[in-house]
Design brief:
About 50% of the residues lie in helices and about 10% in strands. By secondary structure, it is α/β, with parallel strands linked by helices. It is globular and about 70 Å long. The mean pLDDT is about 90.
């Protein structure tokens, strides 16, 4: 803030606030906006990659970007931070949801950041370069103003995404039929969306669940069948009342390297790959909500080539996360990300949860090898608690070490064609950064200490 002795912090308010002229010359937006209502939060969780959701998020971000400039002559510098927000803005999969003007402004920001990085003196702290760039804008440097104007004049406007408008119109029609009591028509309208607009299982599952909601007034039995199909397509959805059974994961005849390559092939470029990894690792911190932490851990397992599952989330029974590696070796994770970082000990209830999940694994998988890891800030077990099996603890230092090694592993791909890199080279990277299945089971956890009365 210029001409202000205090920094103003506003939580998750991207609209309804005007900060014209000298009331705001420096705007910092930290992390992606989040929804407030329970229904919106639920919908984002279930269909995080939906065009509908991403369009809403992009609109929120654009509203935030416009808070500090309220007229033709107004100006400000904007700093974007937070792994989730940076990924959303930079990724080709989501940047397309912004307006042409916003995309061009982001492009300008990335370009000048790249130029500044090239000119950076190795002895100079990077923050000095950031300060210099901000000064050019805030001091109204004529060269900067001309550069900005020239770039903005290059904007080419695109046609409106008509398919998204058609989808939303179908949703409105279906709801109208439902509230009018014509549920069969509502179901057939949603079927049009499934047939014409759903290109992912998550989206297909979402609309199957909508059909199940409409079908409930006609047949509870048929509604449950639809809900079962919806849940099998998207595990974030509501559990069906019956018909759901646990599917064991096991080592299949496809090596770990192939799964890593499949994950990498899903990224358009090295930069997109690093954005995805930063997004995953950014959620693996103590203090993060359990849902985001456990989802990130599942995604990390898949990125590292393991078969990765969330039994508790998907089937309401079993551990938070389960990885399966080569030779049917398993890693069982129980996550306590919401526990205070200064927690003194593992309590009786938490130990009981871990024991229950260890028992579930033994009952489900028999005598298969499994490493049991409790992710929690403390390694001290309460005097009143006991573990029935061999359990080790992943604390802050071990979690940080794992994240650093994962980041180092994927950074190795920078100078390679990520679509053509050999299995031998990937395997070399795995060993270098201590990410073999034996490394995972041996190097990122420690023995707990049992408190004495």
């Amino acid at each position: 803030m210029v001409n202000s002795k205090k920094t103003v912090v506003i939580t998750n308010r991207y609209d309804g606030i005007d900060l014209p002229d000298d009331s705001c010359r420096l705007l910092i937006i930290d992390s992606k906006p989040y929804f407030r209502s329970l229904s919106d939060i639920y919908e984002e969780t279930c269909r995080a990659n939906s065009e509908v959701i991403n369009t809403q998020i992009a609109q929120k971000i654009e509203q935030g970007l416009g808070r500090s400039v309220r007229g033709e002559k107004d100006y400000s510098a904007i700093i974007i931070t937070g792994a989730d927000l940076v990924k959303f803005i930079k990724s080709s999969a989501t940047s397309k949801f912004f307006s042409e003007q916003t995309r061009k402004q982001i492009e300008i920001g990335l370009e000048i950041a790249s130029l500044a990085k090239e000119d950076l003196d190795k002895k100079e702290h990077p923050i000095k370069v950031v300060e210099s760039l901000l000064r050019q804008s805030l001091d109204r440097d004529e060269g900067w103003k001309e550069f900005y104007k020239e770039k903005m004049d290059e904007i080419e406007f695109e046609k409106v995404n008509s398919s998204l408008l058609e989808l939303i119109n179908c949703e409105n029609e279906a709801e109208y039929y439902h509230y009018s009591g014509n549920n069969e028509k509502a179901i057939s309208t949603i079927q049009k969306i499934i047939d014409n607009y759903c290109d992912t299982n998550d989206e297909r599952g979402w609309y199957l669940q909508t059909q199940a909601r409409y079908k409930y007034a006609i047949s509870v039995l048929e509604s449950n069948k639809l809900q079962l199909a919806a849940f099998k397509a998207n595990y974030q959805l509501l559990h069906p009342k019956e018909g759901l059974s646990y599917n064991k994961i096991n080592y299949i005849n496809i090596n770990r390297i192939d799964r890593i390559k499949k994950f990498i092939d899903g990224q358009e470029s090295y930069n997109e790959l690093i954005l995805s990894i930063d997004h995953i690792l950014g959620a693996l911190v103590f203090g993060m909500s359990s849902e985001k932490f456990e989802l990130a851990l599942q995604e990390l397992g898949s990125a590292l080539g393991f078969i990765s599952q969330r039994p508790d989330k998907e089937y309401k029974k079993g551990p938070d996360n389960l990885w399966c590696g080569i030779n049917d070796k398993y890693v069982l994770f129980e996550c306590k990300s919401e526990v205070a970082i200064d927690r003194g000990e593992i309590n009786k209830y938490e130990a009981g949860q871990m024991n229950s999940h260890c028992g579930w694994f033994k009952e489900t998988y028999g005598e298969k090898f499994v490493k049991r890891i409790l992710i929690i800030p403390t390694k001290k077990l309460s005097y009143h608690a006991n573990f029935t099996d061999n359990v080790e603890i992943m604390r802050l230092a071990s979690l940080k070490k794992l994240k650093e090694n994962v980041k180092g592993f994927f950074k190795e791909f920078k100078n390679f064609d990520i679509k053509e890199i050999s299995e031998e080279k990937i395997n070399e990277f795995i060993k270098t950064h201590e990410l073999t299945i034996d490394d995972i089971t041996d190097k990122y956890s420690e023995v707990y200490y049992h408190n004495k009365k």
